Amino acid sequence: MENIKFIEIIPSDFKEIYSIEKKAYPIPWSEKIMASMMEGNEYKIKITYYDKIVAYVFMMVVLDEATVLNITVDPEHQGKGLGRKLLQYVKTELSKKGIISIFLEVRESNRNAFALYESEGFHEIDLRKNYYPTKNGREHAIIMACMLMNG
Ligand SMILES: CC(C)(COP(=O)(O)OP(=O)(O)OC[C@H]1O[C@@H](n2cnc3c(N)ncnc32)[C@H](O)[C@@H]1OP(=O)(O)O)[C@@H](O)C(=O)NCCC(=O)NCCS
């Protein structure tokens, strides 16, 4: 996709982002959590395509470690390389800020996301059993980490 831009998320993006969130997940973040993330000082980036938001990421940064809290591509634009571009963008930017490792959690059933993370240098470091609620039970969370190269 041409004409995409990487821009910091601002509180007024809430409506557009939350409508993608609800389309993208059977169990989305609650409005309250999303609202607090939008207002908070997390590292947060959106991809826009002709001024429309098509993807976003929220990350928590503590000292030299970052954690992906939410990375989402609008279902209408999934599978076009945006998720990979967003991940590559944050890896580069965070590396410049001196971050040395990125952590994330992924549902065991989310094979697409797992494949993306593995191909971007993340590896499995732990398993949290029965961590996530599902529509009809629980599933494991795979914890993954990626080391960033700093000079
Ligand atoms: C997971 C997600 C962020 C990936 O973003 P995306 O833009 O759809 O993915 P990309 O087009 O960049 O593809 C990157 C890789 O992901 C995997 N992938 C993505 N979509 C896939 C699909 N439909 N089938 C199989 N693999 C897929 C592939 O490994 C792909 O690499 P390749 O194209 O070299 O084969 C996005 O699909 C999404 O938002 N999904 C719903 C929300 C979610 O699961 N978020 C992650 C929670 S941990």
Care to describe what's here?
- The chain is built from 4 helices and 7 strands; from the N terminus they run E-H-H-E-E-E-H-E-H-E-E.
- With 151 residues, it is α+β, with helices and mostly antiparallel strands.
- The protein has one domain: Gcn5-related N-acetyltransferase (GNAT) (Aminopeptidase), CATH 3.40.630.30.
- The mean pLDDT is 95.
- Strands 1-2-3-4-5-7-6 form a 7-stranded mixed sheet.
- It binds coenzyme A (COA).
- Coenzyme A binds next to strand 4, helix 3 and helix 4.
Question: In a few lines, what is going on in this structure?
Answer:
With 151 residues, the chain is of the alpha+beta class.
CATH homologous group name = Gcn5-related N-acetyltransferase (GNAT)
Nearest-angstrom radius of gyration? 15 Å
**Helix share bin:** 25-40%
Shape designation: globular
CATH architecture: 3-Layer(aba) Sandwich
Query: What is the first-to-last residue Cα distance?
Result: 30 Å
Unreliable stretches covering 5 or more consecutive residues: none
Could you give the count of β-strands?
A: 7
CATH fold-level assignment? Aminopeptidase
> Beta fraction of the residues?
35-45%
Order of helices and strands: EHHEEEHEHEE
The CATH class is identified as: Alpha Beta
Strand arrangement in the largest pleated sheet: 1-2-3-4-5-7-6
Briefly note the structural class of the backbone: alpha+beta
Number of domains: 1
Ligand kinds: coenzyme A
- Mean pLDDT reading: 95
